[in-house]
Amino acid sequence: MDDVWEAPIGAEVAVAVPADGAHVEQLIWHGDDNTAGGDLTVVVARRSADVVTLRLRRGERLVADIRLRRGDARTGRPHGLLRTDPGPGTSCTRLFPVTAGVTTDHVPDAEPVLSTPSLIAFMEDTAAAVLRPRFGPATAALGTWIGIRHTGPALRGQTVSVTAVLAEVRGRRYLFDVEATVDGRAVGDGQVAQTLIRLD
């Protein structure tokens, strides 16, 4: 691969497999890719001493961001702040009513719909519900990362079903795949991360 650690921000690079001493830390998929609309290109979007973010585009369409980190990947293992290990694949589904307090009416002459911040709160709360029954003494979890698409409306009076599935464990950080539906229709999806903290 090109030396993405030295290439200037905005430079186009060719990427194969991360070289020795680096690993893919995160992949953020921004939408369905298709073969129409131009060639796939990769540019350096951001960089720090140990992390570089590459942005994949097909023509003008944003496809994905890939974050590379120097060093070996951390192995997944349960953290001592939990009494039991939920393990990847552990899931929780919760139902949330769409009330006036979680809607927005910023579109003139349109019925109020579930706001994006409320959708994110539902998803984070559902992810935390996987961890809460397993907390050890003086333990809590905080939302520390979100990557959510709000893809459809939920109207006042409807019920949003949110499912969170544990995808990965990295020390105190627990990454969840999340999906929200209304009557079987998708209204949002993505990932959220919860990080364990000790209250004392």
UniProtKB/TrEMBL annotation:
Domain of life, source organism: Bacteria
One Pfam family in the UniProt entry: FlK
Coiled coil: none
Limits of the Fluoroacetyl-CoA-specific thioesterase-like domain: 102-197
PANTHER family: BLR0278 PROTEIN, THIOESTERASE DOMAIN-CONTAINING PROTEIN
Protein's UniProt name: Fluoroacetyl-CoA-specific thioesterase-like domain-containing protein
Lineage: Bacteria, Bacillati, Actinomycetota, Actinomycetes, Micromonosporales
